[in-house]
Amino acid sequence: MIGIGTHTQVYLVVGATDMRKQIDGLAGIVSDTLAADPFSSHLFVFCNRARDKLKILYWYNNGFWLWYRRLEQQRFWWPEASVRQPVTLSLRELHWLLEGLNPQRIEGHQQARFNLI
Asked: What is the pTM (predicted TM-score) of this model?
């Protein structure tokens, strides 16, 4: 089983990505465009121009995982290419995105935090 920890961030690579790119090409985009480390065990999400395909790049222990999702009739919500700063999501918001929801318009319950003495 793949262990995605609570410390894992989700980064969306805004704009359209050529879905012919595989692990090395996507890792290069992470390094060049986001100035991030593709070996950081964070999730990096890419979308094509038609917004019907997603790829997720993830480093786990000693190798990369590459997930691919293709929709047959629908489109994913995706930030415009004009957004300059990196778009980050929580794991919960990533699930919303994969279910077809716009994670920026949905507000779920906030996580309860307690200070133990």
From this structure: 0.84
